[in-house]
TrEMBL record:
<protein>
    <submittedName>
        <fullName>SDR family oxidoreductase</fullName>
    </submittedName>
</protein>
<dbReference type="InterPro" id="IPR036291">
    <property type="entry name" value="NAD(P)-bd_dom_sf"/>
</dbReference>
<keyword id="KW-0560">Oxidoreductase</keyword>
<dbReference type="InterPro" id="IPR002347">
    <property type="entry name" value="SDR_fam"/>
</dbReference>
<comment type="similarity">
    <text>Belongs to the short-chain dehydrogenases/reductases (SDR) family.</text>
</comment>
<dbReference type="Pfam" id="PF00106">
    <property type="entry name" value="adh_short"/>
</dbReference>
């Protein structure tokens, strides 16, 4: 594929869905600006993706720190044609037990950095009259999630925010798309300390990151408002829409509780 000269900025682009999205952009002739915390991982990803002739630049930032998210905006001196806000984290456990600072870091990463980057690059895109933004939501954003209460709530924010801003800029030539995967086979669960959860134990039930990325990429390029990746996840969200939130929360409690926890929660 001939290089288009266009640039895609992808946060969390060294692993999981973000890395699979980077591969799709490279295949279509985009140059890549990949952002993650670990410079070593950035270097190896850049070497892998750059072998096809794609220009790959990297910036190491911890986007759970607001000053680093703002510094990223200041440091990028390229016209960004596509922004992918993929970086995100969760933490597993009961809200009363989890560490406050860890949960605030997740809010900063999943919500605040998404707002900071979207505001900065959206303004540039609107002034040029073209551009695309893909925000990583989750089916979790439609399902109150005991054992991951803060993570699910951050994804509800991302979905609402993306949908509202999309409407505000609908006549500008810029589109915003929300990708909503379900449980996906990435390092997310390991980082969240979630290996004991029932939902993670059944590996066959986890989506493939490359399949999720393909669904998101196609929706982004088509200018769609959102896409739920995977037929099973579409069914789950549709079923949840017909149930009271309290019933959905109870169902999610049972799905996500630790496997060794035998007692029933009523």
């Amino acid at each position: 594929m001939e290089n288009t000269g266009k640039w895609a900025l992808i946060t969390g682009g060294t692993s999981g869905i973000g890395k699979e999205l980077a591969k799709l952009f490279a295949k279509d002739g985009y140059n890549l600006l990949i952002v993650a915390r670990d410079q070593g991982e950035l270097d190896s990803t850049a070497a892998e993706l750059g072998s096809s002739g794609t220009q790959v630049k990297t910036i190491a930032k911890d986007l759970s720190k607001m000053e680093e998210a703002k510094a990223l905006c200041d440091e990028v001196n390229l016209p960004i044609d596509v922004l992918v806000n993929d970086a995100g984290q969760g933490v597993y456990g009961l809200f009363t037990d989890n560490e406050l600072e860890r949960e605030l870091g997740i809010i900063h990463l999943n919500i605040c950095s998404t707002v900071i980057l979207t505001k900065h690059f959206l303004k540039e895109m609107v002034s040029r009259g073209e551009g695309k933004i893909l925000n990583l939501g989750s089916v979790a954003g439609k399902l109150p999630g005991p054992w991951q209460a803060v993570y699910h709530a951050t994804k509800a924010f991302v979905l609402s925010f993306t949908t509202a801003v999309r409407e505000e800029v609908k006549d500008s030539g810029v589109t915003l798309t929300a990708l909503m995967p379900g449980a996906t086979d990435t390092d997310f669960f390991n980082k969240a300390g979630m290996q004991e959860s029932k939902v993670v134990q059944d590996k066959d039930a986890l989506s493939n990151a490359a399949d999720v990325a393909k669904d998101g990429y196609e929706a982004l390029m088509a200018g769609k408002d959102r896409v739920i990746a995977g037929f099973k996840n579409k069914l789950e969200v549709n079923a949840a829409n017909l149930m009271p939130d309290s019933a959905v929360a109870h169902q999610m409690y049972e799905q996500q509780k630790p496997v060794e926890q035998g007692q029933q929660h009523n």
